[in-house]
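User: Good morning. I'm curious how zinc ion would be positioned relative to this chain. Could you predict the structure with it bound?
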Amino acid sequence: MQSKLNLILNDFVALFFPNTCIGCRGSLPNGVQHICPTCQYDLPKTNNYKEDVPHIRQKLVGSIPFNHMLAYLHFQKKGIVQHVLHALKYNHKEDVGVLLGRWYGHDLLLGGFQNEFDMIVPVPLHVSKQRKRGYNQSEAFANGLSEVLKMEVCNGITRVTASETQTRKSRVERQENVSTVFKAENSLLLKDKRVLLVDDVITTGATLLACGNVLQEVGIKALSFGVIAATN
Ligand SMILES: [Zn+2]
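Assistant: Good morning! Here's the predicted structure, ligand included:
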């Protein structure tokens, strides 16, 4: 009798606090976390680990030498990806980053990337922002990738200044703005390593470039980029 009451109570609670998919707001099947199977199937994958998507690579071509520019998803405004990234950054859904990292890690394994990198370095948040959010969303993604690809995550870069919002600046101003924002934290550990630098989104590429420059200044062996989503 007690357990039946509990079930009814659970249903009652679920009615008002449903365990919903962050993609479509539909209810999640038992045992499924955050993203329902339909939304998972509908994720707009770039698949650029196996076939080049020129406009993504183009964001960084001609800047600094790099090997791979890997983006898991195409960013779409008002689509599943925007909902997912919003939840990851602003709704305390750190687990979503880990989940996406695991899923992408499996794709990369299939693509033959298991021995391509020595370590994963997340783009850092400023310490004050990370304290406020409670975690770094890029590190969450890195942790999911790390589990599957079996390579360590190294917080090799720190963010020195909390840069102001950049949406109203020109591309050149943005690049100048981020070029003095980051510094290497553990040069000896990074030296001669093949690094996969990861972030949540690539838009102009200015942040990844600034971090990439810092990594190359300390003498890493090879640089690649990995992001959850790339804008068009
Ligand atoms: Zn869904």
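The longest strand covers residues 194-202. Residues 44-230 form a domain with the Rossmann fold fold (CATH 3.40.50.2020).
Let me know if you'd like a different ligand tried.
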